[in-house]
Amino acid sequence: MFHPDPSAPATPPRIAGIADYRRIPAFNVAENARILLRYEFIERRLLRSMAGWLPGVARWEAKFLLGRLVWEDSEHTQTLRTRILELRTSERILDRAPSPNLALVLDELVLADDWREFLTGVAALKRALLAAYQRHLTQTQPLVDQPTVRVLRILIAEETEHIALLDEQIAADGGSNEAERTRLDAWAQRIALLLDAAGGVQGIDPVSYAVRSEDLRTGKKTFRCDYTYALDARFTPQVPRFIAGQAPFGDDAAGVYRSIAMGRFPEMQAAKGIALSIYENDGQPWEYYYLSARHLWDEVRHCAMGQAMLEDQGVDWTRLPHFVGNYHFYASLSPLERAIRLGVIIELAMMENGAKRREVELARKHGLALAETFQDYDWADEVNHVDYARRNIETMMHGDTSALDGMIADINRRYAEFRAPWEAKGDKF
Fold this sequence. Notes:
The chain is mainly alpha-helical.
């Protein structure tokens, strides 16, 4: 029979592992929901701002990071929205700005002078979010509000990682020299002051800073997404995929591996096209941005698959001509046309003609284990993308898709016209 040691310290009482369950919280249900609405607003606006900046960020590694952060912040937004609705909150107020001063923080953030300054502002805002999430755990009632506690614990873990990853990219390639750090610290301080004017992330802190219009970029500067496919100096952009006279990859295992890798590596173009639509396509239901954020991250991961396969072959992928033509075409389209081009003309067609299945089988036939794994998951992603496109197209067409076939024909005609000058020289897309 077990006999506890009477000298051992007493275990604090717990219910289902929850301690301090008789704590009186700092706020009630309505106040809790009001603060969560501010978190949701920041996360939602952040992901759209990061999508808007992704095409213009020159540093290759930073593009990958932004793709991941767009998706994970969309997940943060989704879980916060779910919890807010459970706290007697109407869905009608979910997409409103909680306060003009809080909206101003996000308005100013996107007007950074360059990508490094933008990432610095994102990191500063995420530091403030992280502190608010940690503070919230000490303010709320841990038993009755345990669903919020669980959400916040997930967000705390991911925001902590986001900040470290952002700091790494900011400091890379000259970002850590003294003059640059001084410039970037000033921008981070600017974001902090604007948050102060908004009463902090939670909106309950004393305000010590008064916003002056003459200090703002908002109203004097306009942000516009990059349509040029920004790349750092390691890369050489090339509009057509293949130049006339370029040797084919070959039918042996090495050629097949290179062909599969080069099929995935240019998919940053698709990610950038989706990023444009996330930022530019204002006023859509939340589901549009949620599905688009996942689609964007999938395409970024597909590009990374291509990079990984090239590295597996010992290829320096920075020295390959970087195909950018599809992005140039995406940039000429509207958000609806981009969804049709990528989700229907490309991805649905590959489902219907069996192209994705054949890629997996070809990799298996040649014993290319990594390529087979990547293509298997790429295929699974593409099935989901077709569904995302269908739902988003129906949303943008307000449920009436009767004009879809005509739009497909028009996009195909315009793509043929776009390719024509290069194909006349024997180049290929």
